[in-house]
Design brief:
By secondary structure, the protein is mainly α. It has a single domain (2-221), classed as Orthogonal Bundle (MetI-like fold). The chain has helices spanning 2-46, 50-64, 68-82, 87-113, 116-124, 129-159, 171-182, 185-214, 216-221. Helix 1 packs across helix 8 (185-214). The longest helix has 45 residues, at 2-46. The chain starts with a helix and ends with a helix.
Length: 222
């Protein structure tokens, strides 16, 4: 078992290494876009405009109620029919649209968790609603959003494996190709799983360090 695993690692080490880089790029791009999309729809959902509320609720409801693989294929072929994109960028946009719905709910919850008295205090100082949101509310909301955003980023990393079905050569796609070539699917997919596990552990450590740095209460307790 160990010898077979070692052989798989030796045979496909550089292929998996390149695939890891693609996976990280895919995750970084899609999650950066998801943060922008999520923040925009969070504001729409918090808006007093009923049309904006309806638009945000429709987007979040549809995305959360649809299996990711179905949404990925639908968005991929939908995007490609309008604009010609590489499979990497089409997959990134599709993953971003999916993750954006969950990020929107995270931001909505953290913004609403800030005491309303802080809004009133900012207004009493002459700040506009937009200025108080940018300078007072959002910095606190971002700090509170770090733990759930970290979880969503880890989910996004693992969800990126589905982009293999669009032809992107990330970790899972590389594992499928390698397993078909070496006739050792168990060992090959085990290696792929270990790569994902290492990336998730690294992400977890980074998120915990960031949370500790930006959260004074946790830093004092540590």
């Amino acid at each position: 078992m160990l010898s077979s695993l070692s052989q798989v690692v030796d045979m496909h080490f550089f292929a998996f290494l390149r695939a890891t880089g693609v996976t990280l790029q895919l995750t970084a791009v899609s999650l950066a876009l998801a943060v922008v999309i999520g923040l925009a729809f969070a504001f729409l959902k918090l808006s007093r405009n009923p049309i904006a509320n309806l638009l945000a609720n429709a987007y979040i409801g549809v995305v959360r109620g649809t299996p990711l693989i179905v949404l990925l294929m639908f968005l991929y072929f939908g995007i490609s029919s309008i604009v010609v994109l590489t499979s990497f960028w089409a997959g990134s946009f599709a993953l971003a649209i999916h993750a954006g719905a969950y990020v929107a709910e995270i931001f909505r919850g953290t913004i609403q968790s800030i005491d309303h008295g802080q809004h009133e205090a900012a207004r009493s100082l002459g700040m506009s609603r937009r200025l108080s949101m940018r300078l007072i509310i959002l910095p606190q909301a971002f700090r509170r959003a770090i733990p759930p955003l970290g979880n969503q980023f880890i989910i996004g990393l693992k969800d990126s494996s589905l982009v293999a079905f669009l032809g992107v050569s990330e970790i899972y796609s590389t594992a499928m190709t390698a397993a078909a070539a070496n006739f050792r699917p168990f060992e090959t997919y085990l290696v792929a799983g270990l790569y994902y596990l290492v990336l998730v552990l690294i992400f977890t450590v980074l998120v915990n360090r960031l949370e500790l740095k930006l959260t004074p209460d946790r830093r004092a307790a540590a």
